[in-house]
Design goal:
The structure holds two protein chains of two kinds. By secondary structure, chain A is α/β, with parallel strands linked by helices. Chain A has a domain of about 270 residues: FAD/NAD(P)-binding domain (3-Layer(bba) Sandwich), CATH 3.50.50. Chain A is about 25% helix and about 25% strand. Chain A contains 13 helices and 22 strands. Chain A is globular and about 70 Å long. Chain B is mainly alpha-helical. Chain B has two domains: about 30 residues; about 100 residues, no CATH class. Chain B contains six helices and two strands. Chain B has a two-stranded antiparallel sheet with strand order 1-2. About 5% of the residues of chain B have low confidence. Classes of the chains: A alpha/beta, B mainly alpha.
Chain lengths: ~525, ~130
C-alpha cells in the first residue's frame, strides 16, 4: 500500500508497488535496484540531498516465500547450496541473517599477481580506505583500524601465538550486528528524498541511444502490476547472481545481454572456500582470547594469515585459518550438508540444530583434545571464467529466465588451501607450541579435487568484474558498465578477485565509492 | 688338514660372522632413552599413537628399520650429556622445521628427527 504520513516538517513515504495503478511511471534522479547492503548504503548516502532517489526492493519488509522463489535456479559443478536459499529477498537483503564478520581486503588482494591468472584490480586499497572508514560507520563497527597492536591495547588477553610475523600474521576482524532491515527501515522511509518501492522486482532494462544509455527499468510483482522506472542514473544492487542475471536477461536490444559484448557477464563467479582443513594440537594450554569468537560478544579477534611475501614465494592464493575448539568442530557437519533445504529458514534451522548438538557433545570430550583446535580455511577462489552464472531455460513467475550456477574450482585453489597448512605446520613446529594435522582431503598432493563437503561462505563475487579494459571487465574502476553511460553495478559482483574476508565490508566501501562518484556526476 | 682343525677353524669362521651379526642386530643397544621419547609429541599423543606413527614411518623408510640405524641417525650431533641431549634434540627438531626437513605421516606434519624418535620408540615397544 502507499503509505503517506504527513507532518509539517516532512512527507514520509513508502510505496507498495502492488498497490500502484498498473503501468505507472516512476521517475527520479537515481534508481537503485535492490535494497540490501549495497543499495541501502548508497541510499543512506543521499539522504538530505536535493536529489530524488528511487530505491526498489523486490520483496517487502519480511520473508515472503513466493518472492524468495524468484531466486531459485540450478547448480552444476562443485556441489553448492540451493540458489533459492543463499540470499534473502526482502528489505535489508542478506544482512537479515548474516554473521556480521568484517575485515578489509589486504593490499595484495588488489595487485596483479603473476601466479594468479586474471588477478588485479584497477584500484588500490588506498583508493578504498576513505570508504572503508565510512563503511565501518554504516555497519556500526568500531574504528577503521584492523591492526593487531591497536586491538591488543583495547581488549584484554589477546596474546598471539609466538609465530614468525614475516610468515604468519594475525588478521583482525570486527563483528557487526547491523541487520539493515531493522536498523535502517525507519531512516529510509522517513527520508524525504528516498522513495522506497517494495514489491518492485526489476525484470528488464530498456536502453536508448544505440544501447549506450539506460532509458528505464521495468518492474513487476505477483499482483500482476508492471511499472516503469526512469532516472538519470541506474545502480544495479541486486547481488552478484541477480546482477549478472538481470544484465543477461536484458537481451531484447542487446542479444548477448547488456554490457556483455565481450562475453564476460556472469563469468568469474567466485565464492570463499570455507572448509575444515586441519587440526592444531597444542603441547600446553595457551590462554588467549585472540582466536575465539562469541556471537554478539566478541568485538575483535584474529585469524592466522599468510604474509604477502610468502604468498608470492609459494605462488599461492590469499587465505586465513580460523580456530574452533576441536571438541566442537569434530561433531559439526559441513554446512554444505546441513544447508540443503531451498527454504533458507529451514536450512538455517538445520545448521543451528547441528551446531547445538555439536556443542552438547563437546562437553564429553576430555583430555589432550581440550588443547586442540580445528583449523577452518577461509580463502579466495582463483578467478575462473568457467565458474559462471548463465540463464536457464526455465523462467520464474515474473517471466525472467532463472539463473544457473556452474561453480568450478581449480588446482590453484586446492594447492593454496594445502599450502596454508604446510606453512602453518612448519611455523608451529619452529615455535614449538604444537603440531598440525592435515585433513584427509589435503594429504595427496596430486589430488586437485575438492570433496562434496566443501563449504562456500554464501559469498558471491566477480560476475561483473572491474577492469579498465572492456575486454577484461564488465565495469570500469567507477563501477560503470563499459559502454553504457548511466548504468552502474554496486556490490561484490565488481570484485576482480575476492580476497579472503567476507565481502560485506568491502562491497559497502565500494558502493560508497560509487555513490561518491555519482555525486560528482550530478 | 686334520678333521679336528677343520672343525675348529670352521667354528671360528662361523663365530666371526655370526657373533657380530647377532651382536649388531639383536642385542639391546645401549643408548640414551631420550632418543626414543619425542618430548613434545608425548604431550599430544599416548604411547600407542607414538608407536603407530613410528611404524608408519618405518613403512616409508624401511632402510631405517633397525634400532642401531635409528640410533646412529638420531645420535648425530647429540652428546652423551642427558640435559644437553634433550636440548640438542629439541634444537635439531626446530632446525628440521626451519629447513623443511619434515615429513607427513597420517596427516601430521612432523620433523624428521621426531618421526625417527617415534620409529625408535615403536621398535623398543615391539622388542
Amino acid at each position: 500500500m502507499c503509505t503517506f504520513f504527513f507532518n509539517p516538517k516532512q512527507l514520509i513515504m513508502h510505496i507498495d508497488a502492488r498497490e500502484l495503478e498498473n503501468n505507472s511511471i516512476i521517475e527520479g534522479d537515481i534508481c537503485i535496484v535492490g535494497a540490501g547492503a549495497a543499495g541501502i548504503s548508497i541510499a543512506l548516502d543521499w539522504i538530505d540531498s536535493p536529489y530524488k532517489i528511487i530505491l526498489l526492493e523486490g520483496g517487502g519488509f519480511e520473508y515472503d516465500d513466493k518472492v524468495q522463489e524468484l531466486y531459485a535456479g540450478k547448480t552444476t559443478g562443485q556441489r553448492y547450496f540451493p540458489l533459492k536459499s543463499v540470499r534473502l529477498h526482502y528489505f535489508g537483503g542478506t544482512t537479515g541473517h548474516w554473521a556480521g564478520m568484517c575485515s578489509p581486503l589486504d593490499p595484495v588482494d588488489f595487485k596483479e599477481r603473476a601466479w594468479v591468472p586474471n588477478s588485479g584490480w584497477p584500484i588500490t586499497k588506498k583508493d578504498l580506505d576513505p570508504f572503508y572508514e565510512k563503511a565501518n560507520k554504516v555497519l556500526k563497527l568500531g574504528p577503521y583500524n584492523y591492526e593487531y597492536d591497536y586491538w591488543n591495547e583495547q581488549l584484554p588477553n589477546l596474546t598471539p601465538f609466538p609465530l614468525d610475523k614475516k610468515v604468519v600474521w594475525n588478521k583482525m576482524w570486527q563483528y557487526s550486528q547491523a541487520h539493515y532491515g531493522d536498523l535502517y527501515k525507519k531512516t529510509v522511509i522517513e527520508a524525504k528524498n528516498i522513495h522506497l518501492y517494495t514489491y518492485a522486482n526489476a525484470v528488464d532494462i530498456k536502453t536508448e541511444d544505440n544501447i549506450s544509455k539506460v532509458k528505464e527499468v521495468v518492474v513487476k510483482n505477483y499482483a500482476g502490476k508492471t511499472h516503469k522506472v526512469r532516472a538519470r542514473h541506474f545502480v544495479m544492487a541486486c547481488g552478484t547472481i541477480q546482477n549478472a542475471r538481470m544484465l543477461l536477461a536484458a537481451n531484447s536490444q542487446a542479444p548477448q545481454g547488456l554490457g556483455n559484448d565481450n562475453d564476460l557477464v556472469g563469468r568469474y563467479f567466485q565464492e570463499h572456500l570455507e572448509v575444515a582443513s586441519a587440526e592444531l594440537w597444542l603441547a600446553k594450554p595457551f590462554p588467549t582470547d585472540l582466536y575465539s569468537w562469541d556471537y554478539g560478544e566478541t568485538k575483535a579477534s584474529a585469524e592466522l594469515a599468510i604474509s604477502e611475501e610468502v604468498q608470492s614465494k609459494e605462488k599461492m592464493l590469499n587465505g586465513t585459518a580460523s580456530l574452533l575448539p576441536l571438541s566442537v568442530g569434530k561433531h559439526q557437519k559441513p554446512r554444505m550438508e546441513t544447508w540443503q533445504e531451498s527454504d533458507p529458514r529451514k536450512s538455517a534451522d538445520n545448521m543451528f540444530a547441528n551446531w547445538g548438538e555439536a556443542a552438547k557433545k563437546s562437553k564429553g570430550e576430555k583430555g589432550n583434545i581440550e588443547r586442540a583446535y580445528q583449523l577452518n580455511t577461509r580463502i579466495e577462489q582463483a578467478p575462473n571464467p568457467n565458474s559462471r552464472i548463465t540463464l536457464g531455460e526455465e523462467k520464474d513467475e515474473l517471466g525472467v529466465p532463472r539463473a544457473n550456477l556452474h561453480w568450478q574450482l581449480t588446482a590453484l585453489d586446492k594447492y593454496s588451501v594445502r599450502k596454508i597448512y604446510q606453512i602453518l605446520g612448519q611455523q608451529v613446529g619452529v615455535a614449538g607450541i604444537g603440531r598440525i594435522k592435515l585433513k584427509e582431503f589435503l594429504r595427496d598432493e596430486n589430488d586437485d579435487t575438492f570433496p562434496d563437503s566443501t563449504n562456500g561462505g554464501w559469498h558471491h563475487m566477480g560476475t561483473t568484474r572491474m577492469a579498465d579494459d572492456p575486454k577484461k571487465g564488465v565495469v570500469d574502476s567507477n563501477c560503470q558498465v563499459h559502454g553504457i553511460s548511466n548504468l552502474f553495478i554496486a556490490g561484490a559482483a565488481c570484485y576482480p578477485t575476492s580476497g579472503a574476508p567476507n565481502p560485506t565490508l568491502t562491497l559497502t566501501a565500494l558502493s560508497l565509492r560509487l555513490s561518491n562518484y555519482l555525486k560528482k556526476k550530478m | 688338514m686334520k678333521r679336528r682343525n677343520f672343525v675348529l677353524l670352521t667354528g671360528i669362521g662361523i663365530s666371526a660372522i655370526a657373533i657380530p651379526t647377532w651382536y649388531y642386530k639383536y642385542r639391546d643397544p645401549e643408548y640414551d632413552q631420550l632418543l626414543a621419547e619425542p618430548e613434545l609429541l608425548s604431550y599430544i599423543w599416548d604411547d600407542n599413537t607414538i608407536s603407530e606413527i613410528g611404524m608408519l614411518y618405518l613403512e616409508k623408510f624401511s632402510d631405517e628399520n633397525s634400532e642401531p640405524k635409528l640410533i646412529e641417525l638420531l645420535s648425530n650431533n647429540v652428546s652423551t650429556d642427558l640435559i644437553e641431549n634433550t636440548e640438542m634434540l629439541n634444537q635439531q627438531i626446530t632446525n628440521d622445521y626451519k629447513t623443511g626437513n619434515t615429513i607427513m605421516i597420517a596427516g601430521w606434519i612432523l620433523s624428521k628427527t621426531e618421526a625417527r624418535q617415534c620409529a625408535l620408540f615403536s621398535l623398543t615397544q615391539n622388542n
